[in-house]
């Protein structure tokens, strides 16, 4: 897997949006189709606005995952459903190169919670709603 930080983001946004949607549909079962489509409208802005956008490509150079970081926080991590299991390598890269120490995760995504716990994160705070006020509880996690 080839992992690198994107400097120029415009040419790859559509590919990353496809990865985002594929990943969300595979893991965020608590969201309706309408909610996924509504959130999708804001993903390009998030991709261009995050300080560090890191992409992982498979052996033939096709993007299969990405993460965004800012100020030692993992702001986003999405992996193509066909590449599930590759997140550890990408997150380790982020921990080693961007000193990721915190993440926020949907409580209704137990596989993600287990993944972050496996990677050394523990919950220090819970909210009943997400940042937009929707009824999706969030867990705030820090790395031990």
Give a description of the structure.
- With 144 residues, the chain is α+β, with helices and mostly antiparallel strands.
- The protein is 35% helix and 30% strand.
- The chain is built from 5 helices and 7 strands, in the order βαααβββαβαββ.
- It has a 7-stranded mixed β-sheet.
- α4 links the parallel β4 and β5.
- α1 crosses α3.
- The radius of gyration is 14 Å and the shape is globular.
- 24% of the residues are buried.
Side by side, the strands of the main sheet go 1-2-3-4-5-7-6
How many strand units? 7
Percentage beta strand:
25-35%
Main sheet properties: 7 strands, mixed
As a whole number of angstroms, the C-alpha radius of gyration is: 14 Å
- The ordered H/E elements are EHHHEEEHEHEE
The termini sit apart by 27 Å
Outline the fold blueprint.
Elements: E1 2-5, H1 13-27, H2 33-40, H3 43-49, E2 52-57, E3 63-70, E4 73-79, H4 87-98, E5 102-106, H5 110-118, E6 121-127, E7 138-143
Parallel strand pairs: 4-5
Antiparallel strand pairs: 1-2, 2-3, 3-4, 5-7, 6-7
Helix pairs in contact: 1-3
Give keywords.
30% strand, single chain, 144 residues
Short description:
With 144 residues, the chain is an alpha+beta fold. It has helices at residues 13-27, 33-40, 43-49, 87-98, 110-118; strands at residues 2-5, 52-57, 63-70, 73-79, 102-106, 121-127, 138-143.
